[in-house]
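Fold these two proteins, one after the other.
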Amino acid sequence: PGGLDPILEQSIPMGVAFHHAGLTLQERDIIEGAYRSGVILVLTCTSTLAAGVNMPAQRVIFRNLATLTIGTGIPDIIKYKQMCGRAGRKGKDPFGESVIVCSHVKDATVAKNVLNSAFPPITSCLSKGQNNPTVTRLLLEVISLGLVRLTTDIARFVKSTFLHVQEVDRGGEQEGFNEVAKRVKHALLFLVG
């Protein structure tokens, strides 16, 4: 189906729109263009806000705690920061605001706990053990895209990954590279075997 959703057709000229994963590419382009040009002043979103919708805002309002429970059902600081990070983007606003609407005291307590919690350590998704299919998939993708052709290319590419940085931090430059090289070798053997 082409064109614009009938509700969006009526709401966009009024400065209001919605954004979600079910929009067509054409609808996304229209909404994002109208938002950037200032036609849309209020944009409601589903969790697409956390998925990297690059539409900076001055204020992000969470209508309830459930908004912060993508996937796990438990609100956490990473989800919150990812979503509220749309507020006050550099070069657009001097600051940003985020508001979590809590309808119960219990929700307010949970929200305070989320906001005051520490970030868990971030680890590379490639670091999940030697038999990690993610490393194999990554190598298959970079080989098929022609980004690497020789083993020296693979070594150079691997040194540019967060996994390499993480392993170097754990055991030093050579030790870190050797740890990553073991995983890469295992993945390559799987691909050619």
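Now the second one:
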Amino acid sequence: MADDIDDLLDEVEASFVKKQDSPKKLSKTLSSSNKIKDRYKDDDLNSIMDEICAIPEADNLSIPHPISHTAPVTPGSTKKRCFQLYLSGTAVPDGINTTAHQRACDSLRCTDCDFKVSTFKDVVWDSSTDYLFLRNNMPDFSRLKAKLLHKSGAKAYACQCKFRSVNKLMDVSKEKELKWVCGKHA
């Protein structure tokens, strides 16, 4: 069996290596071919480095910007919330409440009924107003005026589940049953 393997190795060697080449000549040929390969590798590296050096500076390149699928944000286009929620009579101006300006929020929304809070100036709610009346008649003023009484300087606030009559500045956070939040101002 060892003879078979030796014969097979001799056959493979004969097919790849010429018989006239001596082992010394063969080693010289292999070393010279390795030097040529190394030289080509160096040439390849030099050519790659030359290509890299030929690329213009990054400052001069125009890189395309990615396409944005959202609307651009411009100053003033973002909606803002009130710093603290206040209700008030007509003496205090309506608008966004900030730390610098106390105003009654005019963009209220109820989180219980998910309805916009309506505001009516110079009126108050009648004491007989109830949940069912508001649920059936909000926000139609012509139907609501049956339960509104005239009072100068007051405001009547209501959603479909809660109502308040206010004469002076009132903090909404102190009214535990009111689940009203700022619905953001443009």
